[in-house]
Amino acid sequence: MPLQIGLSRADITPPIGIPMVGYAGRGVSTDIHDPLRAMALVSVDGDATHLLIVCDLLQLRTETVAEYREAIHAASGVAPERITISCTHTHYGPSVDRNDDPITNGYRENLKHQLAGIARASLNKPRPARLGIGRGTCDIAINRREKRPDGVIVLGNNPDGPVDRELIVVKFEGESGEPIACLVNFACHPVSQASQMTALSADFPGRARDMVEEATGVPCLYLQGACGDLNPVRRMVNAYEPARASGVRLGGEIIEALNRIETREASGVEVASTTVALPRYMYGSQGDAEMLAVELESQVARMEAQDPNSGSLWWAKLRHQRVSEAVESWKSGQPLDTVEAELQAWRVGGIAFTSAPGEIFTENGALVKRESPHGDTLFLGYTNGSIGYVPTRDAYPEGGYEVTHACQVDPDAGDMINNACLDVLNRLG
Question: Are 244 and 232 in contact (CB under 8 A)?
């Protein structure tokens, strides 16, 4: 039986006034610049089915993914382990995970039913499909781990740092050549508008997607890659122009790649997954952890005196909590609870995909693609959960935001994820 593909979509733009996520202390949304979208693509071959859902959101926590998978399973019949939920990682979307805000909790519940609805709709009329793959490159991203003259790593521009500029496009079309969908895999943080923008936006992935659809008529799903240490070259405070420009540049490369793709008959849908227990970050040594705990305790006290409601204070408290837990672990000798991460792989036709639930550095994503046993492999971050940053082993001694502020796993974690992704890829036929 030939491969069959079905597609459905929904507008998931929340109401103005919902708390935003992606930067600390920004507050609530005040406008809608462009809509947020969710798209569901189902791949069917006989009794084998895989469902991919992509959302214009920053991230979804593991417990949220589990809840949504159950709702999608109830609506569609697709087993939860054969459902992949990925986020584009836009920093101009809503908070989704449970908190005390009624707008957030209402949006979260409604989003669950929207995703279940498009999953069911995608299964209504799957069509026989041919597929093909194309490649290109795009230069909108730059390594952001800039080293100052004093050796400190800051969020800036590092033109000599590693960047995976590979653009991969997968095209599905019907037996008569009519377009069904395309998947776009590229790595770059959607932070074009910097931290002050309070208008909801899909950032450059949304503009690239819209451009592709307007120019070609092919529905486009953007699959965010390993962009933990990559930012757009063009950024501007509280202005959409860099997002538009980067989206147009990327969109042009996608269209070029699409036009070069020749599709072929395809068959086969497989899914494999594993869960790895990642060690918690112990901050090098007991002495280093104790020094950092004292420093953060003082920082929290200063911030509480200045503004007890700031988002930055929330971040400082979270860091202090994690470091304090590490200090207690050093003292007691009792290891901290591990961080669970689901690594998934699936194959559609002769093309393989693998995913991780975190902010993976570009070097590790490129390594998995390069060492995959499959000739054509896509790597997705921000998928089936959210565990924070997973730097490369070499990044830990250097420090920087990704290591010092937003990481909860030890230096072994990156290699463990690489190996687990390659393991599940090897389990695919």
Answer: no
Kindly report the CATH number that applies to the domain delimited by 4-124.
3.30.365
- Other beta carbons within 10 angstroms of residue 17's beta carbon come to 12
Q: Report how far residue 408's alpha carbon sits from residue 402's, in angstroms, rounded to the nearest whole number.
A: 10
Can you tell me whether residue 58 is helix, strand or coil?
coil
What is the value of pTM for the model shown?
A: 0.96
Phi, psi of 313 (to 5 degrees): -65, -40
Q: Choose between 160 and 99: higher pLDDT.
A: 160
Is residue 29 within 8 A of residue 101, CB to CB? The reply is: no
Mean pLDDT of 136-152: 97
Instruction: Give CA–CA dist 245/53, Å, rounded.
Output: 26
DSSP H stretches of helix in 270-359: 286-306, 311-332
Chain centroid to CA 379: 10
Domain ranges of the chain: 4-124, 280-332
pLDDT tens across 208-257, in order? Answer: 999 999 999 999 999 999 999 999 999 987 889 999 999 999 999 999 99
With 0-12 CB in 10 A as exposed, 13-18 as middle and 19+ as buried, what is 341? buried
Name 273's Cβ contacts closer than 8 Å, sequence gap at least 6. 81, 342, 343, 344, 345, 424
**Mean of per-residue pLDDT scores for the chain:** 95
Locate 305 and state its tokens: 């005196």
Structure tokens at 222: 């953007």
Quote the distance between the C-alpha of residue 384 and its chain's center. 9
Distance CA 357, CA 89 (A): 12
